[in-house]
Amino acid sequence: MTQIIKGGNLPLSGEPMRVAVVRRSGGAEAPKVDAAALLVDADGKARGRGDLVFYNQPEHAGSAVRLLGEAQGEEGVVADWLEIDPGRVEDSVERVVVAASCDGGTFGEVEGLYVRAVSATTGAQLALYAVEDATTETAILLGEFYRRNGGWKFRAVGQGYDSGLPALATDFGFSASEDEADDEDEQAPEVVPEAPVAVPAPALVVVDKADVPDPYSGAPIAAPLPRLNALPAEFGPEFPYFEYQGEGKEDVETGLTLPRGFIAVDVVKKGSGYLDIVTLTIRKRRWRQVMRSRMDDLRGVGVLHHDGQSPLRLRIETRGRWMIRLRPVSTLRAFDGPVEGYGPDVLAYTGDETGVRFRFEGDEDKKGYFGVAAHRKGGHWEYRFSRRDRGRGKGDLPRGPRLLVVEADGAWSMEPRAGGGGGFWSRSRS
Asked: Residues 181-190: pLDDT tens digits?
């Protein structure tokens, strides 16, 4: 049985999870609820502001925890979704605490509040805890994922704070009123750096001729690539595109300091095995996710947001040989009509608010995952809609300009549709 009461606990397999903070909206006058997560050490303290994941900092530096965004369903059901991968949680972290804050009221006024964890692979429910005794609290610890005997467990907590986030933050070792850190190194948690690993410098190719294969068809393409969409110039810089090749796990020191903005990343990987690409801080800490995929013989597109200050650094983790190519987001395909793809992709959207129909074929077993997130200028993003296993679905997109980041394990197609009214995964606010 996966539904437990306050104080109860359940064992977990340690697989990647998606965690929802669910409630009924209760209309425009209802309190606004925001979900968050804190990574806590053995002393019960967050190691720094980088250990707080919330709407202004939606991804932990180590990519173990991500805030996917808010989704709305039928009959006023609202859910904030987080993604937690216990396998990526640093050894110094003992607990991942799921919390929520309430603005414009108390949790006693929030209807149907519960936290639910599901498998990120199969969608099967792993744990559910319904909060039934909230009264005057304006912040609450819903549950926690914690280490036990080499594995992971979930505990239903239900501890509230009448004085809101400041009291909750103080309990975990920092003040909610502290000034924001000025750079990514101050935001990132302090950890003991690993011993430096000598890796061969990847070959850098400044492409000035038509000899690089297209990531979809494998056919040569001309350089420089033409502008294919109407994204504003401030979305990302224009630059000659660059190619890097390597094998297995490598840290890529590009030496590039491009202007601030989004950069498209073409990825080609031969053979089977998991692939993970992240940006690195100057101390070689994992920072922002670029792409994750388990697809064999992968050809796909990811995206990163560069700060425009420090040289761009990337870490590629996989088996076998790979190629990545950096190019301007102005060269991405536009989503202005029906589109098809296979695997991860990024599309440029510059239209008005619209509905979307999609179809997902899945992998060879007709299973997998399909999801779309919409990124705004400045790197902020929100989860829009998704599906597990093959089938059809619908969702909504806010007004552009946006980058639509597609996560997919197989073939998919999308097209705009008239009207709105998406299902559980749609979101009403842009």
From this structure: 333 333 433 3
* Cα 275 from chain centre: 15
State the pLDDT at residue 222.
38
* 219 touches 79 (CB < 8 A): no
Q: Could you read off the pLDDT of 155-198 as tens digits, one per residue?
A: 999 998 887 766 777 788 865 444 443 333 334 333 333 333 33
Q: What is the DSSP letter of 134?
A: -
| Residues in contact with 302: Cβ distance below 8 Å, sequence separation at least 6, in sequence order | 264, 265, 267, 277, 290, 291, 344, 346, 405
Q: How many CB atoms lie within 10 A of CB 353?
A: 11
Cis peptide bond N-terminal to 213, omega within 30 = no
Structure-token pair, residue 287: 């920072």
CA dist 256 to 82, 89, 253, 312, 375, Å? 32, 30, 8, 6, 23
Which positions ≥6 away from 95 have C-beta within 8 Å?
Answer: 39, 40, 44, 144, 145, 146, 147
Model-level pTM? 0.51
Are 324 and 250 within 8 A, CB to CB? no
**E strands present in 104-173:** 111-119, 125-130, 139-148, 151-161
Q: Whole-angstrom Cα distance, residue 95 to residue 88?
A: 13
Q: Could you say which DSSP state residue 61 is in?
A: T
